[in-house]
Amino acid sequence: MKSNSSLKIVLITVACILIAALSFFFLAGILSSPETYAGIIRSIDDKVETVLKLTASSTAASAGITAIPGDAGTPIAEKLADFSEYGILILCVLYAEKYLLSILGSGVFRFIIPIACILYPLGFFRDLEGIKPILKKIAIVSLALYFVIPLSVHISDRIYDTYQASIDNTISAAEDLAEDATLAGSSAEDQNAIQRIWGYLSESASNFAERGAEILNRFIESLAVMIVTSCVIPLLVLFFSLWIINQVFGFSIPAPSRHPRLRPHLPAPRRRLESGSSAPEEPEDEEEE
User: Fold this and answer.
1) Which of 43, 102, 105, 125 has the smallest number of Cβ neighbours within 10 A?
2) Where are the domains of the chain?
């Protein structure tokens, strides 16, 4: 029985060493290379380009509405100008996902997995039994963190493809509004320019405000799609992955058992009799024959 236990320890130790070597010398080099994530990086770059277009078109539309005489479109222009702040936030998240791909691949498969595999056989010693569940937890959580970005990008692409046409229409409508508003608000130097302006566009400032309100609603929808696909889905994938791992493996680490202290067996106290002699006191829990 003891030989079987020793053989099991040897086999697990050899397997841990092989996994550590495979992770450090083979997987780390592949999974830390940007070429491995060419498709994911291309998808993130497409979202970055879309965010830049949304930010530029919202800024242009805001400037064009501001140039219209009157204050009818001022509130809408201010709201459109605020989209640049949200665009910066989304860009930060997208760039973080892009660069964390290779960083997580290198950190997980070059350091965390090999170190955990090398230290895992130490848990077979009696004094280091508590190290095994800790190493399991570190390895599983690190793998979950590594797969969060590829999985979240794959899910977000499905949502982004559904709304891509709507986002492109929003950008085109904002660019048209900016161009029309700039022409309507600019001062013409000669009669031909005025005729050209009114021949191209015959809308009043209130109509521009209505168009701006419609485009504002489209921008809100597009912004919501970008926030969900770029920020919310990665967090949901991370939390769901950790929840699944916790349900399957469990993260509770057993506390060391507290052994009761051994107390020496003391003789029962003697009871003095009225005559002065002492007799042993019978235990109360003695079984009757």
Assistant:
1) 125
2) 2-251
